[in-house]
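Justification of computing resources. Each target in the renewal requires a structure prediction run like the one illustrated here; the chain below, 208 residues long, is used simply to show the kind of job we budget for.
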Amino acid sequence: MVSAISRYLTDFQLDGSFDKRFPNQGSPQETPPEVVIEDTASLIREAEDRVRTEERSRLQDKVEAAIAAERARTDELLTAYREKWAREETDRLAVEISDALQSMEAKLVAQVARLLTPFLTEAVHAQVIDELKTTLVSILSDNQSRSMTIRGPQDLLSNLAAKLRPVAASIEFIADQGSEIRVIANDTILETQLSVWTQRLAEAVQQS
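Resulting structure tokens:
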């Protein structure tokens, strides 16, 4: 009972202070356990969220770095492949162009040869006729040579006869199907080599 009454009395201290105890005043209330548990769980969730955010940020940085490295490697490979393709295509085109030029040159030479051969052949024939005329005039100037027969293609004989007009009356011209001019004057026999020269001329034109 004394204990019960003492709760309503003022406790005077030696230093002059006093402690008034009021009814129903007890010790401070303690925090309920369930509140402490809820606060701890909230802190854990916040820490976990923070860790997840940091991990997500680090992972994103790693992914971006990996993508950048892969992009750089891909660009390097594409550049190397493009350079290789350009070299190969350049070499291939160079070969094709060279072959095409050689083929064009061969065709052009063949065409020029076909165009020039008749003119060159005619020039060779004219030169042979002139040289043969000089030789025949020399032979006819010899008093011992009174008989002369000349055989050959009609066109060449006509040309030669025109050049030998002053002495042509003493010469017998006989046209034949041959390609050469054959001269018989007593024991002297002369024969041109027009076919040989024509063949050599054609070969020279083709080779050039």
